[in-house]
Amino acid sequence: NVPRDAVHQNLLQTVEEVAEAGVTEAEVERVRQQLLRQRELAVCDSSQVAVELSDWAAQGDWRLFFLYRDRIEQVTADQVSAAAARYCRRNNRTSGFFIPSARPERIPIRPRPNVAAMVADYQGREAVASGEDFEATPENIERRTHRLVLPSGLHVALLPKKNRGQGVTVRLELRYGQAENLQGFEAAAELLPRLMIRGTQQNTYSQLQEELDRQRAEWDAGGTTGRAVFNLETQHDQLPVVLELLRQVLRQPTLPAREMEILRREQLAELENALSDPRQLGSRRLRRLLQPYPPPDVRYVPSIEEQLQRVQQVTRDQLVELYEQFLGGGHGQLAVVGDFPIERIRSQLEAMFDDWTPNQPYTRLARQVFNSGEPQQVTLRTPDRANAVYYAGQPLRLCDSDLEYAPLVLANFVLGGGSLVSRLGTRVRQQEGLSYGVFSAFSAESWDRYAQLTLAAIANPENVPLVKSVIREELERLLEEGVEPNELAQAKTGYLQRRMVQRCNDSQLTLQLLDTLYARRTMQFHADLEQQIRGLTPQNVLDALQAYVHPGKLHGVIAGDFPAASES
Q1: Residue 228 gets which letter from DSSP?
Q2: DSSP-H helix ranges across 255-341
Q3: Which secondary-structure segment (H or E) carries 79?
Q4: What is the dihedral of CA 261, 266, 272, 274, to 10 degrees?
Q5: How many CB atoms lie within 10 A of CB 309?
Q6: In 3D, which of 226, 221, 225, 180 has the Cα closest to residue 200?
Q7: What is the pLDDT of residue 45?
Q8: Which residue has the higher pLDDT, 553 or 3?
Q9: Which residue has the higher pLDDT, 58 or 186?
């Protein structure tokens, strides 16, 4: 019968008293013994021990299970009091009430059915197609792939194979425009593909979605300046119908104003949230440092505030003009992977893109490495965000056909590309316990001599300076000592297995086929790359690293809730 508010106030008062007055040694000893007793009982249950060890391993290392026990035994009243004073604060808590109804409504539960009788005469349906045992090597993929150029000029790769459930994956990339004629269309280019799939002359957005549901299909679309991407997944029998829907989207979109406003609001909400997100702010600032194209160049990387302004100002007239003047079937790539009849789909694709030519010319948007002088180090403050990020990067002058590409790929895998099984994962996350996640990434262009090495970590704001220092130490150690033979052998195995697994995924495989179409290559390029990976020596890796990677040239960005950080 105690009033609810009084109980609530009493609970809060108790918490605040602990934060202000602390705890006694006797209280700590009593709780210590309770926790240790629970642990001793738990270790007698093998299944519970397995769960505990798994949980601690997910946090970094299974041995933390025992380290936690040791720390329970050693913790003092002063330590507990300090923790209570730090964390038991008003702005760090949430309270709520469960208020039962005065007259609860009970829903009667039906008697339990006789399950055995329900399934006694049940007969299953036709089994799902099991697919084939497909060998996902570059050589086999290329043997099975049919490459062609449609009359419109679109480059196509068709890879028929028997999939479980007769699944088919399609990915289309349309390229358009030039650096000069696309200025002012940057925001429209991001919205256009997404708006195209929201209505055609034959179907509204809801009708398109209903038809996709009936066909057991799904699709999505996206875009960047000069590039529109459409992805769809369906099944063998439904592919012709779904491709017809895609034809309507490409050739007869209505670009509905109402749907455009919905997409605009969604994008504005995402950007507004990004204004205080350390990861969004940090990664974008690093891109601006690595690719400092000046405005109004279409390759200029806008700040989030500038992107917000662009989205606010984009009009439907711009989207209509971009579609009518720039889009066409003459430049781009299309890949189809899965269970489909080649000749029928080929003729349907030819009809989809027939006589669809843009009014504006197309020239590939090239990328370059800038001589930007001294690397910049930037700190961004994001108040009220409990975590922080560190990003670093260096642009490199090479392309993916250079001899140094393969050793740099493997060097990155050793450094941080192998996730937890890497030097950064082992040192920063598992040994030091400084980061929630740490990795490195390396990529290179096929047409331009532009590559990029990126380092990244997520951590507690207090740990970021040490994270930055440890990452630098590991990079410098790799540059000085290189890789050990056993370490290199393990990296080769891990990297090549990862590539094989990726090619077993049709979505990943369509991406790789599109890349070969764009670069005017075949899968032989990947076969040669993997053969080069197998033959690498520690000296090959060290020579490539020392020739291209220089810690003193790394641009760096830290973003997070730092007490005294300065924005720049």
Answers
A1: E
A2: 257-274, 278-290, 304-313, 316-326
A3: helix 77-87
A4: -140
A5: 14
A6: 221
A7: 61
A8: 553
A9: 186
